[in-house]
Amino acid sequence: GHPKGTAVLLATSLAQARLHVGEQVADVPELAALLADPALQCYLLWPDEEAITLAEVRERETAEPARRVCFLLLDGTWRKAYRMLHSNPELQQLPRIGLDAVAGQYSIRKKPFPEALSTLEAGYHLLSQWEGAPDRFAPLMTLFTHLNRQWHDFAQGRRS
Q1: Whole-prediction pTM value?
Q2: 91/110 Cα distance (integer angstroms)
Q3: Nearest to residue 10, comparing CAs of 157, 141, 103?
Q4: Is the pLDDT of residue 72 over 80?
Q5: Are 127 and 119 in contact (CB under 8 A)?
Q6: By three-state DSSP, how is residue 103 classified?
Q7: Pick from 39, 25, 27, 19: nearest CA to 93
Q8: What is the DSSP letter of 72?
Q9: Each residue of 21-32: pLDDT tens digit?
Q10: Alpha carbon distance 116, 138 (integer Å)
Q11: Where are the beta strands (DSSP E) in 6-135?
């Protein structure tokens, strides 16, 4: 519900995206069921030294084509997302994936490092790289650019 949050924009822009609200997996039955589904392989988008590439995910999933793939993105400040990850063993056990390096454009919040992305940016880059079709997901970045512009205009006392 945060006015600068982009998860809602991402979830409402994609037909197969779902938004699960809560800090603990146990408190979100739909998410717990998703993580327990044996026909589904979930990956957590989390850029760290354990993260594998999307190419590696593709290789893994080619070996087991009967499974469906699910990507999870944690929404919140980096500090909040870190706390969510470390307070949920179910999330810690997921294979982590990283994206090809891209500089974040989210200029209305502080970034802890240049590649830090908003949830909307992360979703765009993840889907573009996974499907190899950035043009298909370009409207997400148009929406993102508009959001940034609106906030900057508001901060400067202009209406857009």
Answers
A1: 0.80
A2: 25
A3: 141
A4: yes
A5: no
A6: coil
A7: 25
A8: E
A9: 999 999 999 999
A10: 19
A11: 40-45, 68-72, 96-97
